[in-house]
Write a structure and sequence with these properties.
Layout: H1 2-31, E1 51-53, E2 59-61, H2 73-80, H3 128-142, E3 146-158, E4 164-174, E5 178-189, E6 196-206, E7 211-222, E8 227-238, E9 242-251, E10 256-264, E11 266-267, E12 272-283, E13 295-307, E14 313-324, H4 326-334, E15 340-351
Antiparallel strand pairs: 1-2, 3-4, 3-15, 4-5, 5-6, 6-7, 7-8, 8-9, 9-10, 10-12, 11-12, 12-13, 13-14, 14-15
Length: about 350
């Protein structure tokens, strides 16, 4: 009899739970807020709820549908969302969050450089007069003066007819700011008088780390008659490592000339260097007594391949081409001379 009463009570309890379970589930659904982070939008079956598809292809709940409660926060966000917003756009700003993209600045700053320090930390620990004397002695020993001889080229020129020669070099004494320079350049044919012999002496002053000012004089022993020129020039290292030189010359007879040079060292290997170069002369008026006409007088171009394993003595081979131009070429032809000359060269470059 006791067992029957227990079974009857248990059956009644199960029946009550089964009847009340739908109402309890509905009540819990109304009371508990929806967890949007765990909501699987991809698995939501929109066919179970009344919905319409907007122009962007989004399934939106119909008004009055039970798919989403009216008090749900997500419904308010979706109602406030503009319908023409493109898909894939960052909607964090609509939810009250502001995200700013980092700005990347790849331009150099324009702030002025810091001031050069004028204090000496050693003065805090040692007598200032003794430290100043030590700095003066160091600066004195840093200055130097030296004597050097540099032969840029010493050519043996092989050409049709008679072989010839050519040279260019300089000797200088001084330091890294001021120097006294003696330079020479010339060419000729074996067995004949030299065509050009030039000797220049000038003061060279460093304008900056790249260019030097030249002020002095040049004397031409050949051609005849001899001429002496006042010289003003600039020489240095141009951008892209071009060695350049320009000179303005005014003779003691009043004629004015200009000369320009340019060369470049192209290192092919650790010891092979190809050096192309060009030189041109310009006359501002006719000087018939020395066979020069107004305009471009002559142009000389060459290329030399140098074996530079020992920079004190470096042999080279190459080619050299020279041509007289304009009125100067006409004067040369009238005198029975050629206006153009090309030759293979072999020679040495030396520095002592």
């Amino acid at each position: 009899m006791a067992r029957l009463s227990i079974r009857t009570a248990a059956s009644a309890s199960l029946l009550v739970i089964a009847l009340l379970s739908p109402e309890m589930a509905a009540a819990q659904q109304q009371e508990a807020p929806m967890d949007h982070s765990q909501m699987d939008h991809g698995s939501m079956d929109h066919s179970m709820h009344g919905s319409v598809e907007d122009q962007n292809g989004m399934n939106m709940p119909m008004e009055g549908s039970e798919a989403m409660p009216a008090g749900d926060h997500a419904m308010h966000d979706m109602q406030d969302m503009p319908m023409d917003m493109p898909m894939g756009e960052d909607h964090s700003a609509h939810a009250g969050h502001t995200m700013s993209a980092p700005q990347v600045v790849d331009q150099p700053g324009k702030a002025p450089p810091p001031q050069v320090p004028t204090d000496h930390p050693a003065d805090r620990y040692f007598p200032q007069d003794r430290m100043q004397a030590a700095r003066d002695a160091l600066l004195k020993h840093s200055a130097f003066s030296t004597l050097a001889l540099q032969v840029d080229r010493l050519d043996y020129r092989m050409k049709d007819g008679k072989d010839g020669y050519g040279w260019e070099g300089e000797a200088w004494y001084g330091g890294d700011i001021d120097r006294i320079v003696v330079a020479s350049e010339g060419e000729g044919t074996f067995g004949e008088a030299a065509e050009r012999i030039e000797v220049a002496a000038y003061w060279r002053h460093a304008l900056d780390p790249w260019f030097n000012l030249q002020v002095g004089a040049r004397h031409d022993f050949r051609p005849d008659p001899q001429r002496t020129y006042a010289l003003l020039g600039i020489q240095g290292l141009a951008p892209y490592w071009f060695e350049v030189e320009g000179q303005l010359l005014v003779s003691d007879k009043g004629d004015v000339h200009a000369r320009g040079k340019a060369s470049y060292d192209q290192r092919l290997t650790q010891v092979l260097v190809l050096e192309p170069e060009v030189e041109f002369d310009f006359a501002f008026q006719d000087v018939p007594e020395i066979g020069v006409g107004a305009g471009f007088e002559r142009v000389e171009m060459g290329a030399r391949l140098r074996y530079d394993a020992n920079r004190s003595l470096a042999p080279y081979i190459g080619v050299n081409w020279e041509r007289k131009l304009g009125e100067t070429a006409r004067i040369a032809r009238a005198a029975g001379e050629g206006a153009s000359d090309v030759s293979a060269v072999v020679g040495i470059r030396a520095m002592f």
